[in-house]
Design brief:
This protein is elongated. The chain is built from 17 helices and 22 strands. The longest helix has 39 residues. The chain has 583 residues and is an alpha/beta fold. α3 packs antiparallel against α4, α5 packs parallel to α6 and α10 packs antiparallel against α11. The termini are far apart. β13 and β14 form a beta hairpin. It is found in: Secreted.
Length: 583
């Protein structure tokens, strides 16, 4: 049997040359004897229109290299999807032009992928004497070339073995999504000479290049390029022109043009389809990024992609961004910083959820968020003092109110905090804050100084213990409470923790990556509208000296108002006199 197959093999290898070359011969063809050749073409719905067009041109290119005739090579073509259709049988045409016309009129079936059914049809019908195949006693080699791009939806191994047993030599050509195991199950041995897999239909020609040099000994391309724009390829007794990948040969069979894959449609690209040598690619307009699906586009959020340096809030605006400050504060000359919270002084304790549900990467985002809060505070021993408590199944003071005297020290300490994991005992954390965190031993200033005490609870889920008692106790102790929830935080618990009105003291973000939008509300709320300045002596408002000072400031203000009222009355009288004169 191997002796019978030696003669058609060089011819078949010659057939498997690039379709884009549009074979053109300048001399006699390389003849290898009679051959019955059937192409079995996959036209299932997974083969997109421009890919099917590429396969069609591939067939036309192969035909131009055949020595077609009743006594030479007979060619048949069948296509398949969920059913099998004969494009033309082996005995239909003896002229290459008639075959090309039939191939160009081919309409894909665009259904399933019943490859086994197609092989059975080729074995029982396409290679039958009634369809034009020569009888077995003529000992004419029978060769089937199967071109497919997917996984068969039926069994192929058994029917392919039957076909090979009947003397049909099978070449399996897989493109792009083809299943290698199915290709090997169909092909004749040796598999390294009968199984081919290429990355795309545009590159279908590449599997034939390795067989160049086995066909004929004369290399006509050594005599010159023969006008080929890209490559001159020697063939049996002749030559042909071939284009580089991503190009197609023009009608003159010498010049090349780039394949415009997007001419077949935009391939579901949301913005633009761009044709490349490797095939169609989706491209997004400026200011947008391509999503992982390779088709959809998303407006680029520069605030998440660059180190913007905005002290308070970054707003992405197309191809640029700008920094914003909260209401009542102005952006400084550097375009990034805001005038800091200097109007008043606060003792601020942050309760941070370190439970297992937060996860390590999100805990790092929480620490960054805490440092953004610190950025708008005037941290100093006489100004704002900051303490941090982390809680999970237990409570741990990371640093008390009186430990650090500068914002830089606080931020460095925040970054050094290690993630606790485990449970969510928010009630226990509130108790710790009330009983310990705001004590003078921990660095809180005496109540007599009337420095506001603010607690900010940050959590991402439901508490595993009761919070009602200590949430109420905190507010009874005069602590202004804020609750920041993320993800699966429970709104009812957030409102229970926060001071009234809840709309001003409760903040929520659906995920950790978008927490920064909460800063504006927190900044406007935590910074007191009035307070003491740096270096001001802290005194109890109930002391006699304080009351006298307050009375003096009040009387002075009333005197100024009286003077302004007198000036306004005089001006009104002048206007009335002017009107009377005009009459």
């Amino acid at each position: 049997m191997r002796g019978l197959l030696c003669s058609p093999l060089p011819m078949l290898l010659f057939l498997l040359q690039p379709w884009e070359t549009q074979l053109q011969f300048a001399g006699p063809r390389c003849r290898s004897g009679p051959l019955d050749l059937v192409f079995v073409i996959d036209s299932s719905r997974s083969v997109r229109p421009f890919e099917f067009e590429t396969m069609r041109q591939f067939l036309v290119g192969l035909l131009r290299g055949l020595d077609v005739g009743p006594d030479a090579t007979r060619v048949g073509v069948i296509q398949y999807s969920s059913q099998v259709q004969s494009v033309f049988p082996l005995g239909a045409f003896s002229r290459r032009e008639d075959m090309e016309r039939a191939i160009r009129a081919l309409v894909p079936l665009a259904q399933g992928t019943m490859t086994g059914l197609a092989i059975q049809y080729a074995m029982n019908v396409a290679f039958s004497v009634a369809e034009g195949a020569r009888p077995p006693q003529a000992r004419v080699p029978r060769i089937a070339v199967i071109v497919t791009d997917g996984r068969p939806q039926d069994r192929v191994a058994e029917v392919a073995a039957q076909a090979r047993a009947r003397g049909i030599e099978i070449y399996a050509v897989g493109v792009q999504r083809a299943d290698v195991g199915s290709l090997r199950a169909m092909a004749s041995p040796p598999l390294d000479e009968h199984v081919f897999l290429v990355e795309s239909f545009d590159l279908i020609q590449e599997f034939g290049l390795q067989f160049q040099g086995r066909l004929c000994a004369i290399d006509l391309c050594t005599q010159g390029t023969h006008g080929c724009e890209h490559h001159c390829i020697s063939s049996p007794g002749s030559y042909f022109c071939r284009c580089r990948a991503g190009f197609v040969l023009q009608q003159d069979q010498r010049s090349c043009r780039a394949i415009d894959h997007c001419s077949f449609g935009n391939h579901s690209c949301q913005h633009e389809c761009v044709s490349t040598f490797a095939g169609p690619r989706c491209h997004c307009r400026e200011g947008h990024d391509l999503l992982p699906d390779g088709k959809s586009c998303e407006a680029r959020d520069l605030c998440n992609g660059v180190d913007h340096g905005c002290e308070f809030q970054c707003v992405s605006e197309g191809l640029s961004y700008r920094c914003l400050c909260p209401e009542g504060q102005q952006l400084q000359a550097d375009g990034k910083s805001c005038n800091r919270c200097r109007e008043g002084h606060v003792d601020l304790v942050l309760l941070v959820d370190g439970s297992k549900s937060v996860r390590p990467q999100n805990f790092e985002l929480v620490k960054r968020f805490v440092n953004q809060i610190v950025d708008f505070l005037d941290v100093s021993p006489e100004g704002t003092r900051v303490g941090l408590v982390q809680f999970s199944s237990r409570v741990r003071t990371e640093f008390p109110l009186g430990r650090y005297g500068t914002a830089a020290e606080v931020k460095q300490a925040v970054l050094a905090v290690e993630y606790m994991e485990r449970g969510t005992m928010t009630g226990l954390a509130l108790r710790h804050m009330v009983e310990h965190s705001f004590s003078e031993a921990q660095g809180a200033r005496p109540r007599a100084l009337n420095v506001p005490r603010v607690g900010l609870v940050f959590t991402d889920g439901r508490s595993q213990d009761d919070i009602s008692v200590w949430a109420a106790r905190a507010k009874e102790e005069g602590i202004v409470m804020y609750a920041v929830g993320v993800g699966k935080a429970v709104e009812e618990e957030l409102r229970q923790i926060a001071s009234e009105p809840a709309e001003l003291h409760v903040s929520y973000s659906p995920d950790f990556g978008t927490m920064t939008h909460l800063l504006e509300n927190l900044r406007g709320s935590i910074c007191p509208e009035e307070g003491i300045g740096p270096g001001t002596e802290l005194r109890s408002p109930c002391e006699c000296e304080s009351l006298v000072e307050f009375q003096g400031r009040t009387l002075g203000a009333l005197e100024r108002l009286t003077q302004n009222l007198a000036q306004l009355t005089a001006r009104l009288e002048d206007l009335e006199n002017q009107l009377a004169t005009q009459k």
